[in-house]
């Protein structure tokens, strides 16, 4: 009916703009980064950090939380896990929008190519968030919003092309396959 044709014209006008991802770039200077060893997921005191410590640190960095644990901060007393190293420049790229799995695979392949050039990075990450209020999460299950709507996975890729895959979902969601 008329309602259907109105919707069709609306989507045909707005579809391209809605599906075009928004890309932002930023450079983080003098960033404290955890020291990681690709073959050591649990971490070792004074040698490397664990996967859990990295995941927590990454959340702080992506949310632009200060890592210096100042007593005057009411927002956060978080500090980078030990051992850590200061990176003069870290590059952060955020892509927001509807992104299909093929594009994520393409991004991963491009990131892996980064190591074939003489770069100084030992590892890099790619985090993929589902929308917090997405109707579905993993498999065919409905996505339980409840508290935080957690719905994400994170690749940590190392210079030798070993990688870690971390996944987070809400307590009421199906576990990833």
From TrEMBL:
Any GO CC annotation of this UniProt entry: multimeric ribonuclease P complex
This protein is called RPP40 protein
GO MF term set: ribonuclease MRP activity; ribonuclease P activity
Q: By its UniProt entry, which InterPro entries does this protein fall under?
A: RNase_P_Rpp40
Q: Origin, by domain of life?
A: Eukaryota
- Which Pfam families does the entry link to? Ribonuc_P_40 (PF08584)
Gene from which the chain derives:
Rpp40
A Gene Ontology biological process noted in the UniProt record is:
endonucleolytic cleavage in ITS1 to separate SSU-rRNA from 5.8S rRNA and LSU-rRNA from tricistronic rRNA transcript (SSU-rRNA, 5.8S rRNA, LSU-rRNA)
Organism equals Smithornis capensis
């Amino acid at each position: 009916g008329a309602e259907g044709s109105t919707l069709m014209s609306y989507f045909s006008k707005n579809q391209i703009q809605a599906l075009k991802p928004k890309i932002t770039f930023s450079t983080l200077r003098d960033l404290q980064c955890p020291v990681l060893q690709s073959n050591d997921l649990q971490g070792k005191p004074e040698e490397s950090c664990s996967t859990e410590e990295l995941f927590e640190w990454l959340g702080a960095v992506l949310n632009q939380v200060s890592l210096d644990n100042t007593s005057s901060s009411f927002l956060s007393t978080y500090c980078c896990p030990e051992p850590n190293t200061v990176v003069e420049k870290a590059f952060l790229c955020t892509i927001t929008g509807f992104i299909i799995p093929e594009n994520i695979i393409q991004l991963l392949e491009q990131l892996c190519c980064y190591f074939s050039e003489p770069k100084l990075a030992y590892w890099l990450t790619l985090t993929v968030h589902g929308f917090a209020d997405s109707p579905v999460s993993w498999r065919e299950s409905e996505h339980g919003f409840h508290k935080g709507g957690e719905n994400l996975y994170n690749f940590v890729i190392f210079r030798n092309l070993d990688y870690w895959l971390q996944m987070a979902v809400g307590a009421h969601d199906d576990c990833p396959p």
